[in-house]
């Protein structure tokens, strides 16, 4: 009997969706807006993550070596640093490269170029550009270097580390990142709750129209689950249809928006993101649609089923 | 009140030996399936066909698909609506809607049928038809409680008449007539 009832509830839910076309269309339209908000939150979160990662990657710490520092000692220090789990990568800039870079940077300043030419030897030391996996790790790296012979003691090869100068910027960035993540989470929760409330009210209105119908069903002795079942199925169908439409519409929308906003967000293309994460997006939007539709219907109909 | 939809302000309502308003929710559903109800405003399910409206009452009572396929055409024939089985309520006249409501009320073979002003919205010809159906149902052995203000209906039926005034029974005649 349970199986027969289940089949009847499913059938009735589908039939209600089809026959009650106008109500279904309006509920689907509202749910489309809801699912667009959720998709927007997903895309914004991806853009924010990408931006933060890009910003993090732009921060590094330069270890400037003494001009007398032997290359093999510098490379040894590079190897030691690379062994640290906090390190993303270490770039070695040789004295010659440092000079080349310096000349390139000041190619329009003839005085500086002339001064360099006056000197017989390269005044610049080599450098190691260190990039950590997370800005919070720079403190540990600094401690590691302080304990290392390379900084102090007889074999010192380091002239200075510009961590101190960058420390403030790193701290600020870390705070922005943390705040951004927290703010993003709050915004996500608020938007999802708002969108559920909008859908709930629309479906409540749709079910309000069937108020008399529900009352009659109770009067002929139908069980509560048998009355609410088809409405929940219809609600889930609103979600499924809306999710499919949203997933279809996201294709041209991201295609159009992608190249336009890509320069603002460190070259991240939302169209490419949509295509490469389609499976994940499909699951989230599809199940969010079903969940919101079914739960909203369930909550709305329970109001009319109380004895 | 007999369907436990509303509670009495005083006293108790019994169906057989059961105090209806002391029943639990699940038990009320079972009781309601034993009472066929017909309303003045028909109260059909608008998005279900005639066949589905009647089948719904059977589904609610947990009947199988085979029983539904056998019984619904039978009651449709009884109320002379076989040809309208796949029409929606909006496509029916008032009299036809009421006949669907009657078919829905009798399809589970209830112990009693409560008809609340069933002819209130109908013209005299349809009223006559509906009264004939009720007489037929009663002849088949089902108790019918019919409330009406219509003198013609009371006279036509010619059975027991209980008269109520201000919520109290003022007259109970075994073979009564409409008395003011």
Keywords:
heterodimer; A: 307 residues; alpha+beta; Alpha-Beta Plaits; 2 domains; 4-stranded antiparallel sheet; 11 helices; 7% strand; elongated; B: 180 residues; alpha/beta; Rossmann fold; 3-stranded parallel sheet; two-stranded antiparallel sheet; 7 strands; globular
Topology summary:
The complex is a heterodimer of chains A (307) and B (180).
Chain A: H1 2-19, H2 21-58, E1 61-65, H3 71-83, E2 87-93, H4 95-105, H5 110-118, E3 127-132, H6 138-147, E4 158-161, H7 163-209, H8 211-219, H9 224-261, H10 270-276, H11 278-305
Antiparallel strand pairs in A: 1-3, 1-4, 2-3
Chain B: E1 14-15, E2 18-19, H1 25-33, E3 35-38, H2 50-60, H3 65-78, H4 94-106, E4 112-116, H5 124-139, E5 143-147, H6 151-157, E6 161-165, E7 168-173
Parallel strand pairs in B: 3-4, 4-5
Antiparallel strand pairs in B: 1-2, 6-7
Helix pairs in contact in B: 2-3, 2-4, 3-4, 4-5
Characterise the protein shown here.
The complex is a heterodimer of chains A (307) and B (180). Chain A is α+β, with helices and mostly antiparallel strands and 307 residues long. Chain A has two domains: 168 residues, no CATH class; 90 residues, Alpha-Beta Plaits (2-Layer Sandwich). Chain A is 74% helix and 7% strand. Chain A contains eleven helices and four strands. A four-stranded antiparallel β-sheet of chain A has the order 2-3-1-4. In chain A, α2 packs across α9. The model of chain A has no long low-confidence stretch (mean pLDDT 83). Chain B contains six helices and seven strands. Chain B has a domain of 115 residues: P-loop containing nucleotide triphosphate hydrolases (Rossmann fold), CATH 3.40.50.300. Chain B starts with 13 loop residues before the first strand and ends in a 7-residue tail after the last strand. Chain B is an alpha/beta fold. In chain B, a hairpin with a 2-residue loop joins β6 and β7. Classes of the chains: A alpha+beta (307), B alpha/beta (180). At the A-B interface, α1 and α8 of A face α1 and α2 of B.
């Amino acid at each position: 009997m349970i199986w027969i009832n289940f089949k009847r509830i499913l059938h009735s839910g589908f039939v209600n969706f089809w026959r009650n076309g106008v109500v279904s269309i309006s509920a689907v339209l509202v749910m489309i807006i809801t699912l667009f908000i959720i998709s927007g939150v997903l895309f914004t979160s991806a853009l924010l993550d990408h931006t933060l990662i890009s910003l993090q990657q732009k921060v590094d710490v330069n270890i400037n070596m003494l001009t007398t520092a032997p290359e093999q000692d510098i490379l040894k220090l590079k190897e030691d640093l690379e062994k640290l789990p906090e390190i993303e990568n270490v770039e070695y800039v040789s004295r010659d490269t440092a000079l080349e870079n310096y000349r390139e940077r000041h190619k329009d300043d003839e005085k500086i170029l002339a001064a360099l030419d006056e000197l017989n030897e390269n005044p610049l030391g080599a450098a190691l550009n260190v990039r950590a996996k997370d800005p919070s790790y720079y403190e540990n790296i600094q401690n590691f270097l302080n304990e290392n012979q390379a900084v102090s003691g007889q074999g010192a090869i380091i002239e200075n580390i510009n961590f101190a100068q960058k420390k403030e910027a790193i701290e600020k960035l870390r705070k922005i990142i943390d705040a951004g993540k927290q703010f993003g989470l709050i915004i996500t929760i608020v938007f999802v709750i708002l969108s559920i409330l909008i859908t709930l009210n629309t479906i409540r209105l749709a079910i309000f129209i069937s108020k008399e119908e529900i009352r009659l069903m109770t009067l002929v002795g139908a069980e509560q689950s048998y009355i609410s079942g088809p409405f929940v199925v219809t609600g889930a169908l609103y979600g499924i249809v809306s999710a499919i439409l949203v997933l279809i519409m996201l294709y041209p929308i991201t295609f159009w928006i992608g190249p336009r906003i890509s320069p603002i967000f460190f070259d991240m293309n939302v169209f490419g993101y949509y295509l490469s994460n389609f499976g994940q997006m499909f699951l989230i939007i599809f199940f969010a649609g079903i969940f919101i539709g079914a739960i909203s219907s369930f909550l709305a109909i329970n109001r009319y089923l109380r004895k | 009140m007999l369907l436990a939809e509303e509670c009495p302000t005083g006293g108790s309502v019994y169906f057989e030996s059961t105090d209806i308003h002391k029943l639990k929710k699940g038990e009320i559903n079972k009781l309601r399936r034993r009472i066929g109800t017909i309303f003045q405003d028909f109260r059909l399910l608008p998005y279900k066909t005639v066949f589905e409206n009647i089948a719904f009452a059977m589904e609610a009572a947990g009947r199988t698909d085979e029983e539904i396929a056998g019984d619904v055409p039978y009651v449709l024939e009884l109320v002379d609506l076989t040809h309208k089985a796949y029409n929606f309520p909006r496509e029916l006249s008032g009299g036809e809607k009421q006949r669907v409501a009657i078919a829905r009320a009798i399809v589970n073979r209830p112990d009693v049928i409560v008809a609340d002003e069933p002819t209130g919205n109908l013209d005299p010809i349809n009223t006559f038809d509906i009264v004939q159906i009720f007489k037929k149902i009663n002849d088949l052995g089902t108790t019918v409680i019919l409330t009406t203000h219509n003198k013609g209906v009371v006279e036509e039926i010619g059975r027991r008449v209980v008269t109520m005034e201000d919520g109290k029974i003022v007259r109970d005649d075994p073979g009564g007539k409409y008395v003011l």
